Amino acid sequence: MRALSAMAAALLIMACGGEPPERLASTTPSVVANGLSAELPAGWQAAPSTLTPHLQDPREVLAVGTYPLQYRETDCAHVPGSALEDLGPGDALVTLQERGLDRDSAWLGFPERPARFGPELGSRSEASQCAPAARFVDHWFAFTDGGRHFHVLVAFGERASAAVREQAWSILDTVRVDPSRVPDWPSVG
Question: Looking at the whole model, is its pTM more than 0.90?
Fold first, then answer.
């Protein structure tokens, strides 16, 4: 049974990032993909595949939620529209999108990673325009870690508990970035 659970976790991780898992924690559920790792609280799960498959730059490198995350085509390719449409009133979603390689960019708008992630970061995104029937509160912001540049979308259902909100921010706190894994695609600017 344990081997079956590990195999299922490995398949989920590989599908999310398209790469084999680098490690699996035995006591804390974790996701490892694209040179990133994060610890997931009980009840959270990684997307089995990218939620933004048509997005070229940035590219989704991590997507986790408190509910099953599945891609369906929506009117917007740059946000996980189907995941936002499926977000329940008590649910949460966290996605990271990484910008491509541009050694000449000053990366304005991508400050160093904060000491702790929390609700004071970011502002509302245009995601609500892409999923107009969905009801959620979101935070959109960017950061740099290990020379890599990320956009973050954190979305909460309208009745997400304080515990679920704290779990979402704590997932970001556990994200570890491998600086040797630079993007293999160019930035579009």
Answer: no
